# Entry
Amino acid sequence: MTLNLFARLGLALLMALPVVAHAETDELPPLPDRNPGRLAAPARNPARVQAPVVETPVLPGDAATVPWTDAEIAAAKADCTKRLAGLALDYEVLPPIKEGMCGAPAPILLKAVGSDPKVEIDPPATVTCALASALSLWLGKTVQPEAHALFGAPVVKLRNASAYVCRNRYNGTDTPLSEHALANALDISEFVFQSGEKVTVLASWPRVVAVPPLPLPNPIRVAMAGDPPVARLGPADRTIVTAAKAKPNALPKPPPLAVPPLPDRPPDGKSNFVRKAHDDACNIFGTVLGPEANEAHKDHFHLDMKGRRHMAFCE
# Structure
């Protein structure tokens, strides 16, 4: 009887164990999620850390080329017809140009401007019709009248230093797109006259001799002049000190004189011509840069038709 009772109790305990174990398992807290910051943490070894990737600037000609639309080409050609009507120009119509960010929908190859005489563009320049029209106005209004007045002969040739080039300003990698890249600029370095006379921007631009600045005052003397005297000297003391410091036959020094300004180099006909041509161009073109702009323009005039909100940029 006793053995039978113990057997029943043991069987009941064995049956209850899975239930208890299952209950204890349900009460255990879940494992925490992995830390996403640690999963993304870089390697601790500095030799394995990769250097940041530096993107190389994309040059205008290397950018993706999107062709001009038919509507853009038609509008540009209509504008050309309007701008060039009645002008004496020798030019060739070119197909649309598109190189990355560069080009023009209706460029022309400008060979000469005006008549009686023609002004040859040497070498011929790939430009927009707006620029060709502005050149015609500038030559007729300013360049030729000044040429006759100063030299008694007209200009017959303009030396083309640069026209259409797919590049940024100053050939930089991170500078803005140049107007040359849009066929909207022309650089002129030389004027050739019917008489054979040649005027270059580099040699003829008027130079002003800079006046050297006055030397700065000696800071030690300035400081000493502002220091108060340590003790007052009587009249007799001043006489003794003065006599001790004085040198025989010493003469008082005159105050320093300011350096007189050096005279400017007198302008000649060539200097007057290039200055007048430059200054009047500012009333016609959107941008005019010459030798006073910077070192890059010391030998030519840069003329372009960049749109300006109020007035031309002229240097």
The two ends are 123 Å apart (CA to CA).
